[in-house]
Amino acid sequence: MSETINVPMAAQRDIKTVTTEIRTLHRQAQCMVLGYAIEIGRRLKEAKAMLDHGQWGPWLREEVDFSQSSANNFMRIFEEYGAQQVSLFGDANSQALGNLPYTHALRLLALPAEERESFVEEHHAEELSTRELEKLIRERDEARRAEQDAREKAAAADKARAAAEELAKGAEDARRDALAAALNTAFAPGELTLAGLHTGLNLLAKLKDPPPDAALRCAAEAEGVQLSLLSDYDLTGEAPSAAGTLVLGYGSLKDEACASVGETLKKVCMAAREASVTV
Question: Using CB atoms within 10 A of its CB, is residue 101 exposed (0-12), middle (13-18) or buried (19+)?
Answer without folding.
Answer: buried
